[in-house]
Amino acid sequence: MSTTLHWELRNTVVATWYARLSANSSPRRNHWQTRSIYFRATAQLIADEVSAPLTWRSIVAATEPRGSRSTFYEVAGARARHRMVDALIRDGRPTSVELALHYLRRDPVEQLIDETKVWSYWPYRQRALEQSATDDPPTLVATLNRTVADWAGQHAGLAAAVRHSPPACAAEDLTVLHQGGLAATRAAARLTDVIVRAVAAR
Fold first, then answer.
1. Collapsing DSSP states into helix, strand and coil, what is residue 155?
2. Which of 178, 189, 175 is nearest to 12 (CA)?
3. pLDDT tens digits, residue range 77-109?
4. pLDDT single digits (tens) 128-161
5. For a Cys staple, 6 with which of 1, 67, 119, 124, CB 3.0–4.6 Å?
6. Residues near 200 by Cβ (< 8 Å), separated by ≥ 6?
7. Count H helices, E strands: the chain?
């Protein structure tokens, strides 16, 4: 991978947001640990194909060791701390703002699902970056599409949630690989198509 593209993918807005929060090792005030507990509960509820609609109450009830309304709204909703969309808005660049608006949800459960997708997809993303040995953008785009499809095939319920929206980090990565030639909403739409096909192929 070219040095420039490698650096840009390692330092996207979502990657920086993820790294900053997940790097906190404090056992007393570890907001990422709290988020991860809710991500895990959300992913498990979706994987279990619970028939009842997903609500903040059902997520809190499934959160171990102790979920609560107050901690749920610390990680989801308009006043949540350290929201991914807020990081994109603060970045201020047109692509970041466009991506933030695409992922700005009124429903806090949908917002939590968006961030859960990033959390679930992250190991796939990082492995693909580490294994990439090319600097050819079309090849990297194909790798990204395969990585998203692999993730969607293994996490079909989560991938299909919220209208098959892709992990925001994948949509942002696709805009980076197109070097300004692809709008964020178009990137998300293309990856939604990838997810729809991957889920249908299971």
1. coil
2. 175
3. 888 989 999 999 999 999 999 999 999 999 999
4. 998 887 788 899 999 999 999 999 999 999 999 9
5. 1
6. none
7. 12, 0
Q: Report the distance separating Cα 89 and Cα 1, nearest Å.
A: 28
Determine if the pTM surpasses 0.70: yes
Q: If residue 186 lies in a helix (H) or strand (E), which one and from where to where?
A: helix 184-200
Token pair of 99 as six digits: 């991506």
User: Phi and psi at residue 115, in whole multiples of 5°?
Assistant: -70, -30
Q: Which two tokens stand for residue 14?
A: 């979502």
10 Å CB burial of residue 30 (0-12, 13-18, 19+) is middle
Q: At what angle do helices 108-131 and 168-177 cross, to 10 degrees?
A: 50
Helices 137-154/156-164 angle, 10° precision: 110
Residue 111 identity (one-letter amino acid)? Q
Q: Does residue 1 have a pLDDT over 60?
A: no
Is the link from the previous residue into 167 a cis peptide, with omega within 30 of 0?
A: no
The CA-CA-CA angle for residues 194, 14, 28, to 5°, reads 125
